[in-house]
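Q: Fold this one first, please.
A: Sequence and structure below.
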Amino acid sequence: MIKRTLKEIQEMVKGSGLNAAYEDIIVQGATINSREVEIGNLFIPIIGERVDGHIFAEVAVKQGAVATFWQKDHDNVPTEIPVILVENTEKALQQLATAYRNQLNFKIVGITGSNGKTSTKDILASILATTFNVHKTQGNFNSEFGMPLTILQATEGTEVAVLEMGMRGIGQIALLSNIARPDACIITNIGEAHIEELGSRENISRAKMEIVAGLKDDGIFVYHGDEPLLMDKVAKLNVSYRLETFGENNTNDYYPTTMKIADGGMVFTIPQVDFEFVLPVLGKHNVMNTLAAIGVAREFGVTYENIKKGLSSLELTKMRMEIVKADNGFTMINDAYNSSPTSVRATLDLLTSLTGYKKKIVVLADMLELGNDEVAYHEEIGAYIDANEIDYVFTYGPLAKHIASKAKVVNVQAFEDKEVLADAIRNIATEQDIALIKGSRGMKLEEVIERLK
């Protein structure tokens, strides 16, 4: 994490007002949350829609923070604690992250996409860790606050940082890219996530393309080459950085020549080498994520042998294609972290392709933030479910009931109570069965899994 004197911190953000008596105090790390303060932290009060973080500054210092930023347009500047005055606390956080990144001069990879950002981050970080000292985004720290804090968490010995870049609207990813100044960028795919805010996949693709805004001239941009919305925009770029593609089609730079399920994961080959890669996580979509990671890893000089080694030690963030055993022995695929039409179709395809199970159960909750067409999207998922392969469909939530209404599976039921839903699953599932459990983050479908464990 960042370790600098308060004098150095003030210079990095072009701040003012620090009492000379405090200049040599050393900051260790930074936080915007007074409840998560660690000894030695710099507290950065953010002005939110409902709460102004300045009201917690003195509390943060009492809990161990050594200093606080303070926005100049705010009165009642604390006099009993070290304070650095800044024009805007949010921008000061971002300035501090950029300055720290430039001082350490490590390489940065920026990753965005409608689905697969976190999995791709985990895959790439595991591969790069065979060769470099790697730092990566933890949890969902991928916002205008979270990403700068992730940079500030990097140690002096960091050689590569792998950063997620999320968004809520146009302009946000460009902001993050310009803060990070990445050496490599990845767009995993273009789906329907955020369509409520942006209105169309076309607009989503425009927003995702902002990731190249800060990409270094000698960097590399790796993108999904089977996506026409990206291909059209890339064709109009006039850039000096390198372009590489990944996807299913052999027109891409990286594509699978063979791909199969084996031992709870995926085994695939690519044209560049004559051996197999073993990915210890299920799903064709995760093979695509891995191909994107390979493109960046090779650019950074990682050998194919180390890529294979890195995949063997992969650990994905929880609730992403996580295999969990229920208390009575049946298998659950916990993919409850997030959900969209694109990702649901991918996991349904995976479930139908699995063999060796007596019954296959689909448990789906609401897909959120889909805008005016949200009912139609849920109905389309219901119609997409393969009645020849799936034995039960259980849904949870007011939108997911539209999945149930269009599903052609014999056994379909919509629920509004998680405990009742968990009981229904337990009553029909045996150790020979498998259940896919997936929903948007706000639906907290992992609570059903906890009841079944």
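Q: Good. Now the second chain.
A: Here it is, same layout.
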Amino acid sequence: MTALPAVKILAVDDREDNLLSIETILEKEGYTVIKANSGRAALKLLLREHDFSLILMDVQMPQMNGLETATLIYERERLKHIPIIFITAHRYGDDLMFRGFKMGGVDYIHKPIDAALLRFKVSVFVELFQKTNELVIQEEKLKAINQTLESEIAERRLSENRIKLLNQQLINSNAELKATNEELDRFAFVASHDLQEPLRKILLFNDLISQKLGTAEENFIAEYLEKISYSTRRMKMLVNDLLKYSRNTQSTEDFECVDMNTLLNEVITDLEMDIKKTNAVIRIKTLPELLVLPTQIRQLFQNLLSNSIKFSKPDNAPEIDIFSERIPSEPEYLSKNISRNVFHRIYFRDNGIGFDSKYSEDIFTVFKRLHGHHEIEGTGIGLSICKKIVERHRGTIMAESEPGKGATFVVTLPERE
């Protein structure tokens, strides 16, 4: 077998004539032979160069023999892959031969060296070494390719996750847009119907007054004027509530840590006339301190209290209980991966006329009313404002009721926004 010219072989022997003999035999085959006349010299060479394909090592050398030298060579990780053929002038027993193989030697050649046998054994181990190196190089290439593929897969997964996130954001944006469009539709309905209805009545009664002026029926004027006044007041309420609803959407106030008891007492003071008029009884238990938008929470409390007073039974004075409880994170927030540690539920419970539980969601829809405005005065915007305020605070609002058995509104707010 013919070796490649680039193959380097290290020959180690304390006798110069033996080194010259090995060099002469192997150089004819195109090998590059590097010579060392002792074990120490071989180790020095291997510290500088480690690209040898094979080491030919004399066993019997002064100071450091071939087996000792081989042991020191194989202690270095970079040199463990180089095969060693031991050259000896003696016939060793099996124990010594086994020791040589155990430390990493691959074969023995006996002196005097047979040139043909040396060439043959060297070519076999050089070819084996080269193929092993090729396998190592191929393995490294495969590892690099595998690492590249893993990186590409990781990037692809990251891209897929980003796409999923973007899709979810798009879905959420579409849902918000749909909700906004629905609100705009309801605004359009109000603009075309509810807001125009008081105006139509004002015009109607104004025409009737004009017709009655100068006739014997002038006694009806006071009645018509009262109806005009009622329609005007209702128109004013609608416009004011619409403005509140719109401003709530665009509010940029800073959140503050506020005692809910203080806000509630301010609301009760504002509603003092309605409370006295209806003989309402309001019982309050200590409420928590929360991080909120004070103006909006004050409006929330006012709307809920006004509702409880407004929807009381005709023959019963309103009784309203307000209390709270501290709870862990709300399940609906956990499902959205929103971190919340502590929540507080604030209850508004009354003894009013109540409503059918099947309407517990509808009542928070803007302009949705369960009673005609002739029965109970209002615009149908108050509870939708409450819902928007609570959502602005990352909370929830719900209602529980039965006809004739009062209603309970439950507001859940995080302790810290």
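Q: Anything worth noting on the second one?
A: DSSP finds twelve helices and twelve strands in the chain.
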